Amino acid sequence: MRARMMWLGGALALAAAGSAAAQSAQDAGSILGTILGHNTMSGSTGGSNPPPPGVTSTEAAGGLKLALGKAAERVVAQLGRPGGFANDPRVRIGLPGPLGRLNGLLSTLDRAGVTDGLSGKLNAAAEGAVGKALPLLKTAITRMTVTDALGIVTGGDTSATDYFRRAMGPDLQSAMTPVVSKSLSGVKAFQALDTFTAKNSLIAGQFGARDLTGYVTQKASDGVFLYLGEQEREIRRNPLSTGSKLIAKIFGKG
After folding, report:
1. For residue 167, what is the enclosing H or E element?
2. pTM recorded for the entire structure
3. Rounded Cα distance, 21 and 9, in Å
4. pLDDT tens-place string over residues 47-92
């Protein structure tokens, strides 16, 4: 393992310090193939096997983009359907601010009409806004360079997710905000929250309807990145599940 890490560090140093000629697409593809594990150390001589035939840098980057594009589509389809947030305890949106302490009693409060189904309205708003994520994810994928791809493949289990968060996180929230606001208004979530907080000011604290859009938007964005991370880890564990031999080859299992 130590030898592997030393070799990986050397390969990365070579990629960073190469001459202008070493930055050509063909050389980048060779480095990518090496880092992905297609070339391995042979004893103490430093010999290596050639990368798999027929995989160029363009194909490698394209295969990675294909895998991430499919992952993005699955994430949006899962979270954007009815119940996508509400039925998953990992991303379900509870009551905001100090009201969160009531989440354990939420189903009882909803049945009693105390919260006017507020949690369901918050989750429905998030589900309706998730569709805005797909075009932004696709744009981020399109703009991905060979260098980006190299960093993603050689990084941790959620390197692609981290890339997306950097590349389009703020844009995602900006795109979701008006959709969330319109949805919350349409289901009278603002009214429901104001009514509840007016009657229960000691419980609700200072959180009011004016804070609700930002709260739901942030939760919706967090849910998208959580699901993206799960999809990315699955691709790395089992690239053959994507149905693409190229993707499997890129991740060293083809």
Report:
1. helix 159-186
2. 0.72
3. 21
4. 332 333 455 667 777 888 888 999 999 999 999 999 999 999 999 9
